[in-house]
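It is worth pausing here to work through a concrete case rather than discussing structure prediction in the abstract. The textbook approach is simple: state the sequence, then state the predicted structure, then interpret. We follow exactly that order.
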Amino acid sequence: MKPLLRAVLILDALLLLAFGLLFLLTPWTSLYNALLLVQTQPALVGQGFGVALIGLAWLALHASIDGSLTSTVAKVVGHVNWLTGVLMLVWLLGLHTPALTGFGQIIAVLTGVVLLVVGLGGVRLSGAVRRREKVRLVEAAAAERAEKQAAKDAAKDAANKRDSGRVTAGFPVYHAEPVVEPVMPVTRPVGPVSAAPLPPVDEPGLTASERAARADAAAARDDARNSAADAPGAPRPPFHG
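Step two, the predicted structure:
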């Protein structure tokens, strides 16, 4: 759609340039007589109008190259063209002014029709291109908002992960382990150990008197131990019933 609008702008630039040069040559009387055209009076007005048309042609050509100006300039130039075409048709067909010959009137009417068609076509194309550009801008803005929202969500998730990692590092997780109860060993009451007299050691090489003396000494020790245990202040083993 936009390449077609650029082609229409180039056509507009050529038409505007041709009319601008024609009006710029208003003082050239022989040229107007050869083309069977009415010369603009005074010539200064025709030349000023020609300069304006040449400037508008340059603007249309520049807009066909610069995409940011295409739709706006095409709309302005289109309105100028179709309004000029309508004005020419009204004066030529309705008011029959200026009085032209048959060939000149045909050329003037065809010129008005061409300006009307090209102008309306440029206006409609510029409107369609502008609507498409608005849709693209809305879609681009929506995509940009979606990308920003996705970036915010990703940053938020990363921050949550970092925070959870910090909490885990600062406070270690304790796992519950089964508690093993200690087993108390069963103890049996220990009764008093009866001190039994050790049998006399039979050593070879002792005489009978030495053996008897040792036996008497052992018996004396046993008697002394028994008497100490039976004393009233002596410690006694605990009572186990």
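Step three, interpretation. The chain is about 70% helix and 0% strand. Residues 35 and 104 are 8 Å apart (CA to CA).
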